[in-house]
Amino acid sequence: MDEADDEFDLSEDADFSDLEPPKANDPDAPIKVVVDDLHIVYRVWTAPDAPLDPGASRWRRLRTRRPVSTKREVHALRGVSFVARQGEAVGVIGKNGAGKSTLMRAIAGLLPPNQGAVYADGQPTMLGVSSALMQALSGLRNVELGLLALGLTPAEVRERVPSVVEFSGIGSAIHMPMNTYSSGMSARLKFAIASAVTHEILLIDEALSTGDGEFVKRSSQRIQQLRDEADTIFLVSHSMGAIRSACNRVLWLDQGQIIADGHPDDIIPEYETRFGLQSKKALRERRRKRKEANEQALAELAAEQEQG
């Protein structure tokens, strides 16, 4: 299996052609985020390489004195450095385990660097209000709580609730408890709540990884609005269509290092070629055309039967 198979979602099939293209970067814009030689190391405990036979006697286990687990270090980020300016919408791409989420958490101040530093002219905010949501309450009540947690007044909450509910697209399920939602419905609602407020430096991690093409397209439109209102946006996504439509710069991470930094039109084709994503897109296009041809044939057959 191609190593990108498990991470490239079908949201690429969404049509982004009618979205406004990202604005060009301003090289003289004020600097908002500086990441300088950033290293993040996780220290984790792992099982021994050769565990004992579960059927071995307790005395044999004690006699061998084999450790239950071993401590090892995972170097999630290795010397990452870049500068982000006001008005930039930076897409962060890479396969699973490349360090994308770790980078977002470090910029947000949630992970202390083991080496290097992160500087921000403003308060970076991760797109998410999960800590404020309660699974036993209805989606509607969680919308109200989430907006209050984001700093809105009760009057502003009442004003914005209808638009948030409509954007989430979960219909009558908004009146049901959140513990009855699927993961996709829950992610839609969280994105709708969190994106209802303008942020100075906005970090969006995998917000577009769930939902159908239409929701991904609407989410990308919302990100464009946030991009125009916020100073700087970072977007982590496996949807190259969303990255192209919302971002004017791309960072490609691999094994904790930046291997490419530039315009989406320059970086994304190379990324797709490396992981064979172009062939997957061509396959989906052939399937789409075949489906349309079958539907047309069925419609013609139905019309002939009606005439006969």
What does this entry look like structurally?
This protein has nine helices and nine strands. Strand 6 (201-205), helix 6 (213-229) and strand 7 form a beta-alpha-beta unit. The protein has helices spanning 58-64, 100-107, 139-149, 154-168, 183-194, 213-229, 240-246, 264-274, 277-307; strands at 31-46, 70-85, 89-93, 115-120, 124-126, 201-205, 232-236, 249-254, 257-262. By secondary structure, it is an alpha/beta fold. Helix content is 39%, strand content 22%. A six-stranded mixed sheet has the order 5-6-7-3-8-9, with helices on both faces. It has a three-stranded antiparallel sheet with strand order 2-1-4, with helices on one face. Helix 3 (139-149) crosses helix 4 (154-168), helix 3 runs parallel beside helix 5 (183-194) and helix 4 (154-168) packs across helix 5. Residues 1-13 have low confidence and may be disordered.
List its salient traits.
308 residues; 3-stranded antiparallel β-sheet; 9 helices; 22% strand
Order of helices and strands: EHEEHEEHHHEHEHEEHH
Largest sheet: 6 strands, mixed
Quaternary state, please? single chain
Helix content: 25-40%
Molecular shape: globular
The computed structural class is alpha/beta
CA distance, first residue to last residue: 50 Å
Overall pLDDT score: 80
Uncertain residue segments: 1-13
Tell me the strand order in the biggest sheet.
Answer: 5-6-7-3-8-9
What count of helical segments does DSSP give? 9
Strand % is: 15-25%
Count the beta strands: 9
Rg, please? 23 Å
